[in-house]
Request: fold
Amino acid sequence: MRRIAALLFALLAAIPLSASHSVDSSRVKAAITAERIVSEARTHIGKPYVYGGNGPSSFDCTGLTCYVYRQFGIDLSRTSKDQAEDGHKVSTRRLSKLQKGDLIIFGSRENPKEVGHVGIFIECDDSGKDFCFIHASTHGVMVSWLHEEYYSKRFLGARRVLEDFDKMNRKEKAMFEEELGRLTTKASSTSSQSTNSTVSLSSDGHQPARYHTVGRGDTLQSIAKKRHTTVEEIRRLNGLSSYETPARGTRLRVR
Reply:
Protein backbone atom coordinates (compact mmCIF):
# COMPACT_ATOMS: atom_id res chain seq x y z
CA MET A 1 0.00 0.00 0.00
CA ARG A 2 2.82 2.39 0.86
CA ARG A 3 4.49 1.61 -2.46
CA ILE A 4 1.26 2.44 -4.31
CA ALA A 5 0.90 5.70 -2.38
CA ALA A 6 4.49 6.60 -3.16
CA LEU A 7 3.92 5.88 -6.84
CA LEU A 8 0.79 8.07 -6.90
CA PHE A 9 2.69 10.89 -5.20
CA ALA A 10 5.45 10.62 -7.81
CA LEU A 11 2.94 10.72 -10.64
CA LEU A 12 1.16 13.77 -9.20
CA ALA A 13 4.47 15.55 -8.74
CA ALA A 14 5.23 15.00 -12.41
CA ILE A 15 1.98 16.65 -13.55
CA PRO A 16 2.47 20.31 -14.71
CA LEU A 17 1.22 23.11 -12.50
CA SER A 18 -2.41 24.13 -12.90
CA ALA A 19 -3.55 26.42 -15.70
CA SER A 20 -3.49 29.35 -13.26
CA HIS A 21 0.29 29.30 -13.53
CA SER A 22 0.30 29.28 -17.34
CA VAL A 23 0.46 32.44 -19.40
CA ASP A 24 -2.73 33.80 -20.96
CA SER A 25 -1.47 36.35 -23.48
CA SER A 26 -5.00 37.68 -24.05
CA ARG A 27 -5.09 38.97 -20.46
CA VAL A 28 -1.74 40.67 -20.94
CA LYS A 29 -2.96 42.21 -24.20
CA ALA A 30 -6.12 43.48 -22.48
CA ALA A 31 -4.06 45.06 -19.67
CA ILE A 32 -1.84 46.86 -22.20
CA THR A 33 -4.91 48.03 -24.12
CA ALA A 34 -6.34 49.45 -20.89
CA GLU A 35 -3.13 51.43 -20.32
CA ARG A 36 -3.34 52.80 -23.86
CA ILE A 37 -7.02 53.69 -23.49
CA VAL A 38 -6.33 55.81 -20.40
CA SER A 39 -3.25 57.33 -22.03
CA GLU A 40 -5.25 58.27 -25.13
CA ALA A 41 -7.99 59.80 -22.97
CA ARG A 42 -5.37 61.88 -21.13
CA THR A 43 -4.25 63.52 -24.38
CA HIS A 44 -7.66 65.20 -24.53
CA ILE A 45 -7.64 66.70 -21.03
CA GLY A 46 -8.67 70.34 -21.18
CA LYS A 47 -10.64 70.05 -24.40
CA PRO A 48 -14.09 71.65 -24.21
CA TYR A 49 -17.42 69.98 -23.59
CA VAL A 50 -19.90 70.30 -26.45
CA TYR A 51 -23.18 68.42 -26.43
CA GLY A 52 -23.02 65.90 -29.26
CA GLY A 53 -19.25 66.40 -29.58
CA ASN A 54 -17.59 63.36 -31.14
CA GLY A 55 -14.00 64.64 -31.02
CA PRO A 56 -11.25 65.17 -31.44
CA SER A 57 -11.59 68.92 -30.81
CA SER A 58 -14.56 68.70 -28.42
CA PHE A 59 -16.56 65.99 -26.68
CA ASP A 60 -19.59 65.12 -24.67
CA CYS A 61 -19.24 62.26 -22.18
CA THR A 62 -20.07 59.38 -24.51
CA GLY A 63 -18.41 61.14 -27.42
CA LEU A 64 -15.14 60.86 -25.48
CA THR A 65 -15.55 57.21 -24.52
CA CYS A 66 -16.62 56.25 -28.05
CA TYR A 67 -13.71 58.14 -29.62
CA VAL A 68 -11.09 56.75 -27.24
CA TYR A 69 -12.17 53.12 -27.43
CA ARG A 70 -12.56 53.31 -31.21
CA GLN A 71 -8.82 53.99 -31.51
CA PHE A 72 -8.33 50.41 -30.30
CA GLY A 73 -10.96 48.71 -32.44
CA ILE A 74 -13.72 48.76 -29.81
CA ASP A 75 -17.10 50.20 -30.77
CA LEU A 76 -19.28 51.44 -27.92
CA SER A 77 -22.91 52.54 -28.02
CA ARG A 78 -23.34 56.29 -28.46
CA THR A 79 -25.69 57.13 -25.56
CA SER A 80 -24.97 56.84 -21.85
CA LYS A 81 -28.02 54.62 -21.30
CA ASP A 82 -26.82 52.22 -23.98
CA GLN A 83 -23.21 52.28 -22.75
CA ALA A 84 -24.59 51.27 -19.37
CA GLU A 85 -25.47 47.97 -21.10
CA ASP A 86 -22.23 47.52 -23.07
CA GLY A 87 -19.82 44.79 -21.99
CA HIS A 88 -20.80 43.12 -18.74
CA LYS A 89 -21.67 44.35 -15.28
CA VAL A 90 -18.87 44.58 -12.73
CA SER A 91 -19.58 44.27 -9.02
CA THR A 92 -18.77 47.51 -7.19
CA ARG A 93 -19.15 46.09 -3.67
CA ARG A 94 -15.34 46.21 -3.59
CA LEU A 95 -14.07 49.11 -5.65
CA SER A 96 -10.58 47.63 -5.66
CA LYS A 97 -11.92 44.95 -8.02
CA LEU A 98 -12.45 47.51 -10.77
CA GLN A 99 -9.80 47.48 -13.47
CA LYS A 100 -8.33 50.25 -15.59
CA GLY A 101 -10.47 50.93 -18.64
CA ASP A 102 -13.81 49.99 -17.06
CA LEU A 103 -16.72 52.27 -17.92
CA ILE A 104 -18.03 54.12 -14.86
CA ILE A 105 -21.75 54.89 -14.90
CA PHE A 106 -23.41 57.84 -13.16
CA GLY A 107 -26.92 59.19 -12.79
CA SER A 108 -28.05 62.31 -14.57
CA ARG A 109 -28.08 65.83 -13.16
CA GLU A 110 -31.88 65.79 -12.98
CA ASN A 111 -32.32 62.24 -11.70
CA PRO A 112 -29.37 60.65 -9.83
CA LYS A 113 -30.90 57.20 -10.26
CA GLU A 114 -31.29 57.44 -14.02
CA VAL A 115 -28.23 56.87 -16.22
CA GLY A 116 -26.91 60.13 -17.61
CA HIS A 117 -23.11 60.21 -17.53
CA VAL A 118 -20.09 57.95 -18.11
CA GLY A 119 -16.34 58.03 -17.51
CA ILE A 120 -13.29 55.77 -17.75
CA PHE A 121 -11.89 54.20 -14.57
CA ILE A 122 -8.20 54.89 -13.86
CA GLU A 123 -7.30 53.67 -10.37
CA CYS A 124 -8.39 53.26 -6.75
CA ASP A 125 -6.72 55.02 -3.87
CA ASP A 126 -4.93 53.08 -1.14
CA SER A 127 -8.06 52.86 0.99
CA GLY A 128 -9.96 51.02 -1.74
CA LYS A 129 -12.94 53.28 -1.03
CA ASP A 130 -12.32 55.98 -3.63
CA PHE A 131 -11.21 56.07 -7.24
CA CYS A 132 -10.44 58.52 -10.01
CA PHE A 133 -11.78 58.51 -13.54
CA ILE A 134 -11.39 60.57 -16.70
CA HIS A 135 -14.45 61.99 -18.39
CA ALA A 136 -15.91 64.83 -20.42
CA SER A 137 -17.72 66.91 -17.83
CA THR A 138 -19.48 70.19 -18.53
CA HIS A 139 -16.16 71.81 -17.56
CA GLY A 140 -14.31 69.88 -20.26
CA VAL A 141 -12.27 66.69 -20.28
CA MET A 142 -10.79 66.20 -16.83
CA VAL A 143 -9.92 63.76 -14.05
CA SER A 144 -12.37 63.56 -11.13
CA TRP A 145 -12.73 61.46 -7.97
CA LEU A 146 -15.70 59.48 -6.69
CA HIS A 147 -15.57 61.23 -3.30
CA GLU A 148 -16.61 64.51 -4.92
CA GLU A 149 -20.15 65.14 -3.74
CA TYR A 150 -21.74 65.41 -7.17
CA TYR A 151 -20.37 62.01 -8.32
CA SER A 152 -20.68 60.13 -5.02
CA LYS A 153 -24.42 60.84 -5.06
CA ARG A 154 -24.79 59.63 -8.64
CA PHE A 155 -22.53 56.59 -8.87
CA LEU A 156 -24.54 53.71 -10.34
CA GLY A 157 -21.99 51.06 -11.25
CA ALA A 158 -19.43 49.90 -13.79
CA ARG A 159 -19.26 47.97 -17.06
CA ARG A 160 -16.32 45.97 -18.38
CA VAL A 161 -15.72 45.96 -22.12
CA LEU A 162 -12.20 44.50 -21.99
CA GLU A 163 -11.26 40.99 -20.95
CA ASP A 164 -10.77 40.46 -17.20
CA PHE A 165 -7.11 40.94 -16.36
CA ASP A 166 -7.29 41.88 -12.69
CA LYS A 167 -6.33 38.32 -11.75
CA MET A 168 -3.16 38.03 -13.82
CA ASN A 169 -0.73 35.52 -12.38
CA ARG A 170 2.94 36.23 -11.67
CA LYS A 171 4.16 35.30 -15.15
CA GLU A 172 1.50 37.39 -16.84
CA LYS A 173 2.28 40.39 -14.63
CA ALA A 174 5.96 40.03 -15.53
CA MET A 175 5.08 40.00 -19.24
CA PHE A 176 2.83 43.02 -18.75
CA GLU A 177 5.53 45.02 -16.91
CA GLU A 178 8.07 44.15 -19.60
CA GLU A 179 5.77 45.20 -22.42
CA LEU A 180 4.67 48.36 -20.60
CA GLY A 181 8.30 49.29 -19.96
CA ARG A 182 9.11 48.79 -23.63
CA LEU A 183 6.20 50.95 -24.74
CA THR A 184 7.00 53.68 -22.23
CA THR A 185 10.63 53.78 -23.36
CA LYS A 186 9.53 53.94 -26.97
CA ALA A 187 7.05 56.73 -26.21
CA SER A 188 9.57 58.84 -24.30
CA SER A 189 12.01 58.70 -27.23
CA THR A 190 9.38 59.85 -29.72
CA SER A 191 8.76 63.58 -30.04
CA SER A 192 5.44 63.34 -31.85
CA GLN A 193 2.39 61.16 -31.31
CA SER A 194 1.62 58.56 -33.96
CA THR A 195 -1.49 59.10 -36.05
CA ASN A 196 -2.40 55.41 -35.93
CA SER A 197 -3.68 53.40 -32.95
CA THR A 198 -0.34 53.39 -31.15
CA VAL A 199 -0.65 55.80 -28.24
CA SER A 200 2.17 57.54 -26.46
CA LEU A 201 1.96 56.40 -22.85
CA SER A 202 3.79 59.50 -21.68
CA SER A 203 1.83 62.12 -23.59
CA ASP A 204 -0.03 64.82 -21.70
CA GLY A 205 -1.32 66.56 -24.78
CA HIS A 206 -1.34 70.31 -25.01
CA GLN A 207 -1.61 71.45 -21.41
CA PRO A 208 1.15 73.56 -19.83
CA ALA A 209 3.05 72.08 -16.91
CA ARG A 210 1.72 72.68 -13.39
CA TYR A 211 3.48 72.13 -10.08
CA HIS A 212 2.76 71.52 -6.40
CA THR A 213 5.11 71.99 -3.48
CA VAL A 214 4.72 69.21 -0.92
CA GLY A 215 3.48 70.66 2.35
CA ARG A 216 2.95 69.38 5.86
CA GLY A 217 0.64 66.37 5.87
CA ASP A 218 0.61 66.06 2.09
CA THR A 219 0.56 62.58 0.58
CA LEU A 220 0.59 61.63 -3.08
CA GLN A 221 -3.04 60.57 -2.69
CA SER A 222 -4.12 63.91 -1.22
CA ILE A 223 -2.15 65.85 -3.83
CA ALA A 224 -3.66 63.78 -6.64
CA LYS A 225 -7.19 64.45 -5.40
CA LYS A 226 -6.53 68.16 -4.88
CA ARG A 227 -5.01 68.55 -8.35
CA HIS A 228 -7.49 66.29 -10.15
CA THR A 229 -4.92 63.82 -11.32
CA THR A 230 -3.67 60.38 -10.23
CA VAL A 231 -0.84 59.02 -8.12
CA GLU A 232 0.48 57.02 -11.06
CA GLU A 233 0.61 60.16 -13.19
CA ILE A 234 2.48 62.15 -10.52
CA ARG A 235 4.99 59.33 -10.16
CA ARG A 236 5.46 59.14 -13.93
CA LEU A 237 5.89 62.90 -14.40
CA ASN A 238 8.48 63.09 -11.62
CA GLY A 239 10.30 59.80 -12.22
CA LEU A 240 9.30 58.43 -8.81
CA SER A 241 9.38 54.71 -8.13
CA SER A 242 6.47 53.00 -6.38
CA TYR A 243 8.53 53.05 -3.16
CA GLU A 244 9.50 56.73 -3.09
CA THR A 245 7.71 59.29 -0.92
CA PRO A 246 8.64 62.90 -1.72
CA ALA A 247 9.86 64.96 1.23
CA ARG A 248 8.23 68.15 2.47
CA GLY A 249 9.27 71.06 0.31
CA THR A 250 9.70 68.95 -2.83
CA ARG A 251 8.36 70.61 -5.98
CA LEU A 252 6.34 68.07 -7.95
CA ARG A 253 5.01 68.37 -11.42
CA VAL A 254 1.31 67.44 -11.34
CA ARG A 255 0.38 68.07 -14.96
In short: The CA atoms of residues 176 and 182 lie 10 Å apart. Helices lie at 2-14, 25-42, 61-70, 80-83, 149-152, 170-188, 220-226, 231-238.
